[in-house]
Queue: 4 jobs
Job 1
Amino acid sequence: MNEAKILIEKITEGIQEKKGKNIVVADLTGIGDTICKYFVICQGNSPSQVTAIVESVREYVRKEVQEKPVGIDGLRNAAWVAMDYCDILVHVFLPEVRNFYDLEHLWADAKLTQIPDLD
């Protein structure tokens, strides 16, 4: 399994650990001129859950694959937090913010993979 796939798996586990919902992996590798190779998109029901998901992802990835995000943006109001792992951008949204920006539709050319919720 390549590094990106392992990283996506660990990010997903971190999201699921805090009951993040509606996880979608967008594969952007077939699209030219993108800022990264993959998006991992999910949502939490409250700013505190969004923050907990971000912390969980950071911990899981650090423990399992010794990677740290290059940057994390959006924690102040925790409506949309982006975590930058170079080739992979993790987006953790509140549901209404996710619906508003609709990244999946914006990147409709990407190959989208839905990860089932754990409950």
Job 2
Amino acid sequence: MHNKRYDIVVLTDDRYVAPNEINRYNQNILTEDGLVVEALKRRGFTVTRKSWSDPEFDWSSTESIIFRTTWDYFNRYQEWQDWLERTSKLTKMINPFELVKWNMDKHYLQDLQQKGVHIPESRYIEVGEEVTLAKLFTETGWQNCILKPCVSGSSRHTYKVNPDNCDRLESTFQSLIAEEAMMLQPFQNDIIEKGEVSMMVMGGEFTHAVLKVAKPGDFRVQDDFGGTVHPYEPSSEEIAFAEKVIASCTPSPTYARVDIIRDNNGELAVIELELIEPELWFRLTPHAADKLAQSIDF
């Protein structure tokens, strides 16, 4: 189709190229990436799968790359940023480079809010800001909150904080804001009462959804912490909301996961917009991988 060796390289990380141990977690990754590879091949693309940090691969040899299971990037953040800058000059990125850079930092939620997309109340704490947790609780009037970094994944440095435990967490908080921006949000009761709804959108159109539920006594819905995933039939209101979120992005993403809840006022709100390497649960809805493939055009 093109002069280059590959049309598309599906990106993973070193751990998942050819794992020595096949457990349920690794198998899900291999299944998900396999569905994407096969869907792209059915469209006639020449496809391979590589780790983003493969030192031997020539990224100029592919027409494009698509981010899938690059799940170590936030632990290798400077290396990742350097690689993105270099590689963006050699090949096309899906999703586009400018979206990937924007989506790496949770300040993007502020940008969405300015475009009319509802998000939970949020207080950003910038690097080096002179403030204490106690002062933040006084300033906001909030009682139960979540504190998390603006660049994060898998609940890294995520804490449930309140006026009773803020003194105990103060030294941790100060060490964090000396190095990175953080955000404080009121704890959203819907996460415990119902869970997070993840809405998958391919080519601007909703394809499928899941409900992520934390284990009893926890608030983190990731399976790393005992969370579970369930098929979910969203309402037309939820679908319209997810598609509105995607329509607010410039440029338009080829694929996305929109994580939504009802906030403490009962209003639909985005808690995460995942445009880089979201888990998309193609294994539950394989035809969505074909929808993704159909959304890619050169």
Job 3
Amino acid sequence: MENSILNLKPSNVWKHFYALTQIPRPSGQMEEITAFIEEFGKKLGLETSRDAANNICIRKPATPGYENKKTIILQSHLDMVPQANSDIDFDFSKDPIQAYIDGEWVKAKGTTLGADNGIGVATTMAVLEANDLEHGPLEGLFTIDEETGMYGAIAVRPGFIDGKIMLNLDSELDGELYIGCAGGADVSIEFQYEDESWIPQEDVAVKVSLTGLKGGHSGVDIHLGRANANKLMFRFLKDALLTYDIRLSSISGGTLRNAIPREAFATIVVDGKDPYEKIKEMVAGYEELFNEEFKGIENKIEFKTEFVEITPELKLIPKAIQTRLTHAIIGCPINVINMFAELPNTVETSINMAIVQSSEGKTEVKFLARSSSESKKMAVCGSIESIFSLAEADFIETGNSYPGWDPNPQSEILAIMEKVYEEQRGEKPKVEVMHAGLECGIILSNVPGLDTVSFGPTIKFPHSPDEKVEIASVEKFWNYLTAILKQAPDK
């Protein structure tokens, strides 16, 4: 079934995208994909470089008559977000993505597709390989580990790229050109303790599972009002803690810093079978409540209980810790903090409670804050720090802060792109500022003076197993990009 995408147009883009689906490339596992891209450039006979961070740059000379054009950098990232539904047996470290056509879209079976940013990578490969295009000098810049911290972009330095114009191919809505984006920062919290091992013989262990949420990209989808699995789980836990004096054994919600958590699981211990029946009723009540609250936003939310065997390995989080943790999480803001006053319908600042994870002797909580305002970004991080400071967390740190990208409405390449778009489609494109983080701001901070615009085909629900890319928009994207390259400004 996955081979059917090879029949799509433009075939030169889809063949490279198919090749990418066969190579494991979750963030942090870049060895095979960087070797593949490096070998690709060398086989074409093009100058191919690798920097200390393992970013790859492939240079292609201008076609005859276009030598006086400014060098354009085509930039995309090689890694993808590894998210799979809980009922799918899939190993992102070795299994190929199973891409297939579903009507007007390409999707993947139960996992993220990797169109973010695989379509950008595949399109750059097609441009570098093509011998029937007209363009000035080109550089294909392929960065690593964008999804986990933009580490490749952070390492880019002058000289590794020489171009004066950079087209970032990592946006996700056809017809929109992005000239700015939010910056971000991680807030990491840790509660440390000694697990308690004594559990009364009459107690019962119960696993509570919250599943079925849509999740999504914590920048692109944060304004949609989707449920955060961690927040919903702790609403229930607070009620159960106060009503039935439950004990928390473990908690696991969310897996990625930049994805809205879709699932959360908790193991709790209750005093005997009769309270279990009441907990079961409480869970059923919350399932009904959550579905009512998120009607029209989420698919059916499932909230279930099941007995778990009490074994010697099952431990309890100390009661004082579970109380402080629960109240802190309930007290934290999530989702949109504020919108731009001057840009209607555009998020300025947000916070995503991405991960809550317990393991032996500790529970970790991780947030990703985003804002186009550096001061507001740090202010929302400070509010999270204060809440967990009051909860007496053992470790609180704000780190991995990266800058936003300030808009330049007078951009020379933007004017050309608007002109080409009107010529092709008879209307003006939308010029926007994106709330999601792009590598542009980081690369610009390292290589000042780049004239930069970001654009791409339509990709829906990135960072979730619902990810899909619109087939028709990929062909439009290709035709638009190649026309822009032909009309690049002179040096």
Job 4
Amino acid sequence: MKINNKLWIGVITLMFLAIGGYCAVAINAQSTTKDAPVTMKNDFSANTHVILETSLGNIEIALYNETPQHRDNFIKLVNNGTYNGVLFHRVIKDFMIQTGDPDSKNALADTFLGAGGPGYDLPAEIVYPKYFHKRGALAAARQGDEVNPERKSSGSQFYIVTGRRFSEYQLNGMIERLANQAQSKIFNSLAQQHAGEISQWQALGDTVSLNNLRDSLIAKTQQIYASSPVKFTPEQIAAYSTVGGTPHLDGQYTVFGEVIAGMDIVDRIQNVTTGTHDRPVDDIKIISARIVK
């Protein structure tokens, strides 16, 4: 782990801002390959299937049994009609399409969307690395870590991953960046616990104490990180290099299902023209959602 002087100074002065609103973290990804179909290898005969009838066509999803609270909540919302009439209010090509905000029903064109829900959150059920953000994955939206350190999911909002394909070289570079980010986050958290001492030693010009603390925090950071390092499984590498996805979200959001039919409809949605806040210019809605198995 590299901790330079700029980072150390930044730790002393940095103030973290909370970011509200349910979202999946967006990136400016450039697609270098044509979208590939989802390759299904799993047997979902024992899983609940849901069809989302959208204004552009039907999408069929299977809900994972290993995320029972998200599965049962989704089934409940389907059965009580919560999703009937909601818009795909946030669409980002080569990333994901997001829906499930009850406030989006019949929303005016200039209405800000993405903060609505059923009035409750769900505890995270992150079954990682078994379930990850491959193309076609169904995941729960949530508020950011700054205001939601437990990574609780929105009670109703979800997104379907489109993403893009990556070379193994790109994936290795991503692992390195994510590892550095993870270690920096650990280091910053540890440093904040010593904010008073840091300010005092800085005022006194006591560089010896500052450097000693820095070195001890680096060692502790490396020890903590070593217990849970960032890495991709062979299954992830295979998926991200063939069908694609959004690997930078892995382990941070609850993935609780996947598309088993209708990925062409997902692609139609992700390719529409969008405006302010990534909302489609022409509304795209879930006409109805129903359990089919």
